[in-house]
Records
---
Amino acid sequence: MKEDKAPMTARDAIEGRVAVRRFMPGPVPLDVVRDILRTASHAPSGANLQPWRVYVVAGATKAALCAQVETAHRHHAEAHAEEYPYYPDAGLEPYASRKRQFGQVFYGALGIQPDDVQGRARQTARNFRFFDAPVGMVFTIDRRLAQGSWLDYGMFLQNVMLAARACGLDTCPQVSIARFHKVLRCCLAIPDDELVLCGMSLGYADTSAPELAIRQSRLPVDAFASFQGFDAAAA
Ligand SMILES: Cc1cc2nc3c(=O)[nH]c(=O)nc-3n(C[C@H](O)[C@H](O)[C@H](O)COP(=O)(O)O)c2cc1C
């Protein structure tokens, strides 16, 4: 019998996207990944520069890459550093409070107590296996490009996540893996003139994951937008 399911709207995809950190083991076919990236490449970019470059890994290649990154993380993490600052200085408000709130909600859903340093570290380490997703992606940018291209890049990344939703797949963007860019560079033959921005897990969500029962909150519109020049009568 034909399934009578309404197609996913853009709003469904945007509001239904969450960072998924637990995946089913089943593979994602290469043509589906290609299709997601092709759709995502419709992202706008200033003068159509299209600054994105993606390294996609699966199967034994992903396993070998993750083994190297996990070894680096476990044994000499201090020898590795991000190529660019992603987070602001610790303590900068209101962002420090928002980060704290994220941690409370996320680790709370996992049953990891605030003082359980090892529990948090174990969860963090799952980043370096792409959360056991069948597909891992590493995103790089030509380091000669200007800040504007980073703006474009964000739109591409969001498109990847939304296109994945349209294919019934889920994602987790991951800046944490960028710290190990030297390992990624070596394993994936990433040239020195490319800067590693972030990674992303891609796969079919394990819907039994307890953290999927929670949602990270968003500020109300009036907390980040101001409106001027609207006709009061029409409002
Ligand atoms: C560029 C970027 C990098 C991120 N890096 C990580 C990461 O390294 N590990 C992780 O678990 N989540 C990471 N996240 C996911 C965020 O924590 C998540 O998007 C945020 O808490 C909002 O939750 P939601 O995406 O489920 O709505 C990242 C998100 C973005 C946009």
---
Amino acid sequence: MVLNGKVALIAGGVKNLGAESARELAEAGADLALHYNSASSKSNAAELETQLKQKYPNLKVAFYQGDLTTAGAVEKLFQSVLKDFGKIDIVINTVGKVLKKPITEISEEEYDSMFAINSKAAFFILKSAAAHIADDGKIISIVTALLGAFTGFYTSYAGSKAPVEHFTRGVCKELQARRVSVNNVAPGPMDTPFFYPQESPEAVEFHKSNGMGNRLTMVQDIAPLIRFLCTDGKWITGQTIFANGGYTTR
Ligand SMILES: NC(=O)c1ccc[n+]([C@@H]2O[C@H](COP(=O)([O-])OP(=O)(O)OC[C@H]3O[C@@H](n4cnc5c(N)ncnc54)[C@H](OP(=O)(O)O)[C@@H]3O)[C@@H](O)[C@H]2O)c1
């Protein structure tokens, strides 16, 4: 229970990678402030709450709803968590949106939405985290293996995740004196409902064939890495950790 007494805020924390990260951090003893965006995610929140309460009855868990594409909404989330928990030790940002299309078919609205969710929300989550996180804190943003690949059709996805690497490097230097580590984790194509809608069956097989053991990345491959960065891996900062079974060389 190395995270006993620590408070973790997970943006996008009730399903898929966010929920698995919540379970990992709960197992290590952290109290959890879990955010979701869509009304449809409310049932995921309820299901996760039941699971966590059953397994860890002494843990404090609270849920927050919000579209995090404005600085005001992000800061409101942080203020609500501070009010409820008194402090924030760990911030994980899993917020993301994918689009697979040739650039010639991407509209201005689609571009704006991709950058609002993948870049702007990530930037303002880092800003509020930098302002409010406790000394010795941990900040982790989820990016993508595609930052280490040359590939078409994901231009707006990889392109809108790419700035997060630079935001992270800058914030890492700004928070060094307070011993706050700031990192990115870059999963390979991951077996969640986020991945499938834009992929043909042939593309799924291609993605699998590029991973160790001919499979996709699982959330269970990534959440322990997040836990490690929050515990024994505290000396790692300013980095992007690629975890994709050899899908990319970076
Ligand atoms: N699955 C993959 O193949 C893969 C591979 C590499 C990296 N990633 C990255 O891993 C992260 C988690 O993905 P996942 O596979 O676990 O799928 P996911 O659960 O769908 O994660 C995306 C999260 O972003 C949230 N979100 C979307 N729009 C938002 C907004 N406007 N404001 C606030 N939150 C918003 C979603 O919340 P709601 O659902 O409540 O709207 C959801 O929790 C994402 O950042 C993704 O880019 C995924």
